Amino acid sequence: MNNNFNTVKEVKQWRNFRFNNQDYDLSHLNAHWAEYLDDKDENNPIPYKFIVTYGLHCFTKESNELSSDESQLLMYHAPNESRQFNFERYELSKQLPSIIKSLSEKTTLVCHAGYGNFATVKVLDSNGIEVDYYVVFKVFKKTKKLRLHIVSAYPRYEGIGKIRKVSFFIIAKNLLNNRKLPS
User: Fold this and answer.
1) What is the secondary structure of the chain as a DSSP string?
2) Are 110 and 166 in contact (CB under 8 A)?
3) Rg for the chain, CA atoms, rounded
4) I want to staple 152 with a disulfide (CB 3.0 to 4.6 A). Which of 24, 26, 57, 157 is the partner?
5) Spatial distance between the Cα atoms of 45 and 140, rounded to a whole number of angstroms
6) Rounded distance, CA 180 to CA 183, Å?
7) Backbone phi, psi, residue 101, to 5°
8) How far apart are CA 143 and CA 96, in angstroms?
């Protein structure tokens, strides 16, 4: 698959964040392709290719607990928004590419919420505590290409509450065939 992302308006390549003379590499959040194969019908497997992009909220977080000096030191400036770099979200974001690859697997819980689709998986945070990691994403088609944009990703320590599970392949199939997405 070539990396021709000319139609992508979101950030395609994140620049690293520098703090206290240390660089925090964000290349794991650069745009890439993800391919899924629905082989439920082994005589007619259906491949789905998505361009995947990631939003600023995957590694930043607004914080009112910081002084204005601390806030400025941690500020990450993206093309359309600026927010404070968050070390916990950054560490967890390193798992996002493998989570995105697993969206079609039974171990990844894909659910629908009122504001969009999201997936949640169990991960270990930086303290070794198992948490629900919410990966909020939206899917759409742009110039005949399937798109998957990760809007935000964050740990939830209070549980996931009531959910409506949906198959990622139903989302992909409906998107490909210009049908209404599950709601």
Assistant:
1) -----TT--S-SSPPPEEETTEEE--GGGS-EEEEEEE-SSTTS-EEEEEEEEEEEETTB---SSS-HHHHHHTEEE-SS-EEEB-HHHHHHHTTHHHHHHTTTSTTSEEEEETTEEEEEEEEE-TTS-EEEEEEEEEEEEETTEEEEEEEEEEEESS---S-EE--HHHHHHHHHTTPPPP-
2) yes
3) 17
4) 57
5) 22
6) 8
7) -65, -25
8) 25
pTM across the whole model:
0.91
Residue 75: exposure state from Cβ atoms within 10 A (0-12, 13-18, ≥19): middle
Using the predicted structure, report yes or no on whether residue 126 has a pLDDT greater than 60.
Answer: yes
Of the pLDDT bands very low, low, confident and very high (cuts 50, 70, 90), residue 2 is: low
Residue 29 has a CB neighbour count (10 Å cut-off) of 24
Contact between 109 and 87 under an 8 Å Cβ cutoff? The reply is no
The amino acid present at 88, given as its one-letter code, is E
| Tokens representing residue 76 in the block | 């990450």
The answer to whether 100 and 83 are in contact (CB under 8 A) is no
Per the CB < 8 A criterion, the answer to whether 127 and 138 are in contact is: no
Residue with the bigger pLDDT between 157 and 106: it is 106
12 token code pair: 């395609």
